[in-house]
From TrEMBL:
UniProt entry tagged with the keyword Kinase: yes
Record protein name field: Kinase
Keywords of the record: Kinase, Transferase
Superkingdom, taxonomy of origin: Bacteria
Pfam families xrefs: MeaB (PF03308)
Gene Ontology molecular function: kinase activity
Source organism of this protein record: Caulobacter segnis
InterPro entries in alphabetical order: P-loop_NTPase
Kinase recorded as keyword: yes
């Protein structure tokens, strides 16, 4: 079996990560994998671990490496992203027409399909192949089911990652005052944010109740989240070009500012609320490095 250091080195090379990534992995990725493996020894099968962090915080890289490290320990792991549970464009268009125009934009609770997530979790605990949903962000629509990857079950661990995984509804009084210009100008009566908050208290609650453990990453502030999300969009633009697709499918700066405003309220609330309930809290600095070792 390859050593963890060798696994990290191979992963960093394949992903084109910076030279100091091994140091970061020693502070974050490897200790988290060890923590999850310890939780798996407690006997819950499958163990469902939530990985929550703001946009651009490095969740995808974290989960991808943790999956490899756990597999090297002989554990069968499935990864599911909350982003891959987004409703289809047609379903969000219907919500925008019937509930609020801002629901055209994916992101806030109410724009996912929690029942699909529950069905996938159930299936991953049974023998047989399970198709893992995928969402094409460049097309802003769910990928065809025929393209979804399949995982042979039952698995030992499910890593459910996403920017709002584990989030809880805000007290109703917190919804009264708009948090940014988007809410002030386009949701003056609070209908959109009220719908998202009700979704957390409603259909999202059973999905997040399936989490056996929760690891939370937080950013220094929301301005840093905007920077990180911009870097994500730059990488998407480069990937589209490399695939021969139109780089203009990625958002420009104005579109990104508007997009990230949809996430601001809940991102701030998660950073305030979830540290008190998460099993692991990782406070990141501007470089996405943990301020304290796990």
């Amino acid at each position: 079996m390859a050593s963890e250091a060798a696994i990290v080195a191979t992963f960093a090379r394949e992903e084109g990560l910076p030279e100091d990534f091994a140091t970061l992995a020693a502070r974050l990725h490897r200790p988290l994998a060890a923590r999850i493996a310890g939780w798996a020894d407690e006997g819950r099968s499958p163990l469902v671990v939530g990985i929550c962090g703001p946009q651009g915080s490095g969740k995808s890289t974290l989960v991808a490496l943790v999956e490899r490290l756990l597999a090297a320990r002989g554990l069968k792991v499935a990864v599911l992203s909350i982003d891959d549970l987004y409703l289809t464009r047609a379903e969000r268009t219907r919500l925008a027409r019937e509930v609020h125009p801002l629901l055209t934009t994916r992101g806030v609770p109410g724009t996912h399909d929690p029942a699909l997530g529950l069905a996938v979790l159930d299936a991953l605990g049974r023998p047989g192949a399970t198709a893992l949903p995928r969402f094409d962000k460049a097309l802003d629509d769910r990928a065809p089911e025929a393209t979804w990857p399949r995982v042979a079950g039952p698995v030992d661990i499910v890593l459910l990652e996403g920017w709002c995984v584990g989030a809880r509804a805000q007290p109703a009084t917190m919804l009264d005052v708009p948090i940014n210009a988007l809410e002030r100008d386009e949701d003056p009566d609070g209908a959109w944010r009220g719908f998202a908050n009700a979704a957390l208290a409603g259909p999202y609650a059973p999905l997040f109740a399936r989490l056996d453990r929760l690891a939370l990453m937080t950013a220094p502030d929301f301005a840093t989240v905007r920077v990180w999300r911009g870097e994500q969009e730059e990488r998407l633009r480069a990937r589209l070009a490399a695939e021969g697709r139109d780089p203009a499918l990625a958002m420009d700066e104005a579109a990104l500012d508007r997009f990230i405003a949809h996430y601001e309220r809940l991102t701030r609330w998660i950073a305030e609320d979830l540290p008190g309930v998460a099993d692991v809290v990782v406070r990141l600095d501007e470089r996405r490095w943990p301020r304290e070792a796990l």
